[in-house]
Design goal:
The complex is a heterotrimer of chains A (about 170), B (about 110) and C (about 625). By secondary structure, chain A is mainly α. Chain A has six helices and no strands. Chain A is globular and about 55 Å long. The relative contact order of chain A is 0.06. Chain B is an all-alpha fold. Chain C has a two-stranded antiparallel ribbon. Chain C has a two-stranded antiparallel ribbon with strand order 3-4. In chain C, a hairpin with a 5-residue loop joins β3 and β4. Chain C starts with a helix and ends with a helix. The relative contact order of chain C is 0.07. Classes of the chains: A mainly alpha (about 170), B mainly alpha (about 110), C mainly alpha (about 625). Chains in contact: A-B, A-C, B-C.
């Protein structure tokens, strides 16, 4: 059963990611991102991390993608004339593709991956909390500061901009 | 087409998840390379981040440790903050240049 | 405690302190500067006499290490043996008298302070040479002396001729010093030491490495400093300096430093080097004497005379050692018999003549200074005349000086010149003949000078209004005259020179008679012919009688200068321009600016990375990822 689910979710994620990359319309791309987030959340559940799935949905899908949509709506995005791809782009794409392929092949052939344990315990929220507040306490605090600074940064950016606009 | 996939790995283990993560990452990377709309490029960046979170959670699950999963918290937080600041910059840039096509944002050219 | 060592250090430091005080504080106060300098010179003279009479020689532990580079060390030290004692006395005493003379001579000069500061620095440098205990230290003070000489020749710096002369003196000295430095380095390289005591010690033990190159290269320094051929061109021009400078530096002490240095390195001498030295000195003596005959300027005559006498001293040194009978003594003092021992007669004769020459040449230069001062700075002897009655003291003392130099018996010059002629007669007859001829010429031009300057009618306004100089200027003349008479006697010179006195060759028996006859003969012939030939008139009699010979003799002097001018203008200047071109094109343009250009290009290249396009940055990012990937998979 989980296998089928995995395949469905995987295909969903990849397809919507493809939509993000390919679609000319920015709003469509944002919605594609949203759907791939849904797929990813499902994959997280399959991996016995429901907490993370919820967090992903709340933070990413709820806030980030919403913000993206908001900004897309705000900015007047008329797609410019489609210019042909430059040679450099094609070369870079090919190189990237080659990297991807070689990576996968080497992973398949030579990777010595750890064997899955017999019974995989489903971690509860208590386990997460334990880790966050003992081993990873410092990163938590630092991330807190970083959020504060990001907030300040955003305020400054928008405020300064408004003033110059007002001066004009 | 599904049957070979079903038949190849009865229970999808770590390699499958890593493959999926790699594909997502590659897609995101192509998006950054090929798109001209700044916002869409930014979204593809987020896609790359998501791919890495998937890989982390997969490793955490298949090794029985929790470190990878906890790390995802941090990634999420940072991604959120980054998006906020980045979008503020893009808005500011738009107000100045009145465009968000990447080729036209080349005023740092020598 | 070695109080004499402290005296030696004091005697070295005093003039330096005086010069420093004058340079820093007393630039505008000429009178105070002159008194300070004279007082210092007096103190130096007094201390040198105290040290001489005290008798302590060769202080132990008088050497201090100054610089060290691994195995190589330069040390400064004091070597006070009989040679240094004698030289120190000469420098101190004659220097003091000249300082006193300068009080009167330079009284009206506005730049008096600079002059006396220069004199003090010179005393410091000269005493440094005298007291030095190793070759490096001598070299340091050698250069300092050259600097002092430049400073003092250039005293009337508003005159272009003085500036040129000082530059010439310094540069020509530098050429000699280059050879000197090479000699020092070679000595260090072959022997591992440049300390005189060390070298003497090794020579006594038979460990000294002898080489013809070392003494010849070291002799180059003496060639420069003592103005031997071919570097003699600077000394006549150096007469541009004030007369006391000419007396002190270019007659009595500095030019004698070359001789002193040769005596110091006597232990390194080999026969071939001595031959070269001997012939250099002889040729210089003859050449200078020939040049002196046609000179008009009183100081130039004396300058050529100095050159000639220096040639004598160098030739004497080059004549080398002599076998002299020495008493063999038992440890308790009883005499066993006489044996012949090789003594460094060259050293003895050279130092003896150096001493007497210092006395009478300084006397004559100061006398000429008095004459010049009296005639209101007129230096042409054909515009003088009749000064015998107007300046009696000067006349009398100058006469004594002239008699001393031409070798009048019972005066100092007679004994020292005899010693040299005896040495020449014993060792090398050709040199003896040339030196005897030079003695004839010496008498000839000195009497010419004497007659034309002092006798006859006054030939110009200045000469007719001449008056005797003040006491400050005549007192040194009198003292030096006394020394010129008494300085040659064994009693006096023996006291001054200590063991050096025993090195002076003494003629015995038939040789003694021969030498006596020869010296009397040369003196009479030279003096007599000059006295009767030259008329005390306004024109040179030789020029009138035989213009061709006169011109030929004049050309002798010019030829060297012309040769050097040609060399500098045609050879050296062209080479310098070639080097300049190479420097500008290769070094400055290609290498230095080329390096700058490369940096510029790198900058341009880095600048090209700044396309405004985001995608290009992503490509670079991809490249980085590829490289990292390759590295991780072990491709590198």
């Amino acid at each position: 059963m989980s296998d089928t689910l995995f395949i469905i979710l995987a295909v969903l994620t990849v397809a919507s990611a493809l939509l993000v990359v390919v679609n000319k319309n920015a709003v469509n791309a944002a919605l594609g991102l949203l759907i791939s987030l849904l797929g990813l959340a499902g994959l997280f559940v399959l991996l016995d991390a429901p907490l993370l799935a919820f967090v992903l949905l709340m933070v990413y899908a709820g806030a980030v993608v919403a913000l993206f949509l908001f900004i897309i709506m705000l900015l007047d995005t008329t797609p410019g004339a489609a210019k042909p791809f430059k040679k450099m782009t094609i070369v870079a794409s090919l190189v990237g593709a080659a990297l991807l392929v070689s990576g996968i092949c080497s992973l398949a052939k030579r990777a010595v991956l750890p064997a899955a344990p017999e019974t995989i315990a489903v971690p509860s929220m208590k386990n997460y909390a334990e880790q966050l507040f003992t081993t990873y306490l410092l990163p938590v605090q630092v991330v807190g500061f970083m959020l504060l600074i990001a907030m300040l940064g955003v305020i400054v950016l928008s405020k300064k901009f408004d003033q110059t606009e007002g001066a004009k | 087409m599904i049957f070979p996939l079903l038949a190849a790995a009865p229970t999808y283990g770590l390699p499958a998840y890593l493959l999926l993560s790699a594909v997502l990452f590659a897609l995101g990377f192509f998006g950054v390379l090929l798109r001209k709309n700044t916002l869409v490029i930014y979204m593809c960046l987020e896609l790359m981040l998501l791919a890495s979170t998937l890989a982390l959670v997969a490793f955490a699950h298949f090794q029985g440790t929790l470190d990878g999963a906890v790390f995802v918290f941090f990634i999420l937080t940072i991604a959120a903050a980054e998006v906020a600041v980045g979008l503020a910059i893009i808005v500011a840039l738009f107000r100045k240049r009145h465009t968000i096509q990447v080729e036209e944002l080349n005023h740092l050219k020598h | 405690m070695h109080s004499m060592l402290n005296h030696a250090i004091l005697i070295l430091v005093l003039p330096l302190a005086s010069a420093a005080v004058i340079a820093l504080f007393l630039r505008q106060r000429g009178a105070l500067a002159s008194w300070l300098s004279v007082a210092t010179a007096g103190a130096i003279a007094a201390i040198s006499i105290i040290m001489l009479l005290h008798g302590e020689r060769n202080f132990p532990h008088a050497s201090w290490e100054w610089l060290r580079f691994g195995d190589f060390a330069v040390s400064l030290g004091i070597k006070y043996d009989d040679l240094a004692a004698l030289m120190l006395f000469i420098v101190g005493f004659v220097g003091f008298l000249i300082h006193v003379f300068s009080l009167g001579y330079m009284h009206d000069d506005p730049a008096r302070a600079r002059f006396f500061g220069g004199l003090s620095i010179f005393m410091f440098s000269m005493i440094g040479i005298v007291l030095a205990d190793n070759l490096f230290m001598i070299f340091i003070f050698w250069e300092l002396v050259g600097f002092s000489s430049w400073l003092l020749i250039n005293h009337y710096h508003h005159k272009q001729s003085a500036a040129d002369a000082s530059k010439k003196a310094f540069i020509v000295n530098r050429v000699g010093d280059f050879g000197f430095l090479l000699g020092i380095i070679m000595c260090y390289w072959l022997n591992g030491t440049v300390s005189f005591d060390e070298l003497a010690h090794r020579a006594a033990n038979g460990h000294l490495v002898f080489s013809t190159a070392i003494p010849l290269l070291l002799f180059c320094g003496a060639v420069g400093k003592s103005a031997q051929m071919p570097l003699q061109v600077w000394l006549p021009d150096a007469m541009e300096g004030p007369t006391p400078v000419s007396a002190l530096i270019h007659a009595a002490t500095m030019v004698a430093a070359g001789i002193f240095m040769l005596c110091r390195i006597n232990v390194l001498m080999v026969a071939d080097a001595l031959t070269v030295i001997m012939w250099t000195g002889t040729v210089t003596a003859l050449y200078a004497a020939l040049c002196a005959i046609t000179q008009r300027d009183i100081k130039k005559v004396l300058a050529y005379s100095t050159l000639s006498q220096l040639g004598y001293m160098v030739a004497a040194f080059g004549l080398g050692s002599l076998a002299a009978p020495v008493a063999l003594r038992e440890p308790n003092g009883t005499v066993l018999g006489m044996t012949d021992v090789a003594i460094a007669a060259g050293v003895g004769a050279a130092m003896f003549h150096l001493t007497t020459h210092a006395f009478f040449k300084a006397l004559m230069f100061l006398g000429s200074g008095s004459v010049i001062h009296g005639c209101h700075h007129e230096q042409d002897i054909f515009k003088m005349g009749g000064l015998r009655s107007k300046m009696p003291v000067t006349f009398l003392t100058f006469t004594i000086g002239v008699l001393a130099i031409i070798g009048m018996p019972f005066l100092a010059g007679f004994f020292s010149k005899d010693a040299i002629l005896y040495l020449a007669m014993e060792k090398n007859h050709a040199v003896f003949a040339i030196l005897a001829l030079t003695a004839v010429l010496t008498s000839f031009y000195m009497v010419r000078l004497w007659k034309i300057t002092f006798f006859g009618e006054a030939r110009s306004k200045e000469a007719s209004h001449a008056h005797e100089s003040g006491f400050v200027m005549t007192l040194p003349l009198i003292i030096l005259a006394v020394l010129s008479v008494a300085g040659g006697y064994s009693g006096v010179f023996g006291k001054l020179a200590g063991s050096i006195h025993e090195l002076v060759p003494e003629a015995e028996g038939s040789a003694h008679t021969t030498i006596l006859l020869v010296s009397l003969a040369v003196m009479t012939i030279g003096a007599g012919s000059a006295w009767f030939f030259y008329q005390a008139s306004a024109h040179d009699t030789l020029e009138e009688k035989s213009a061709g010979l006169f011109r030929l003799l004049g050309q002798l002097k010019e030829s060297f200068d012309n040769l050097y001018d040609y060399y500098v203008a045609k050879v050296q200047q062209r080479f310098a321009m070639l080097l300049n071109f190479l420097d500008r094109v290769f070094l400055a343009d290609t290498i230095i600016q080329g390096a700058a250009r490369i940096v510029g290009y790198i900058g341009l290249g880095a600048r090209a990375l700044y396309t405004g396009s985001l995608h290009v940055y992503v490509y670079w990012f991809l490249l980085g990822a590829v490289v990292l990937w390759a590295f991780a998979t072990g491709l590198f």
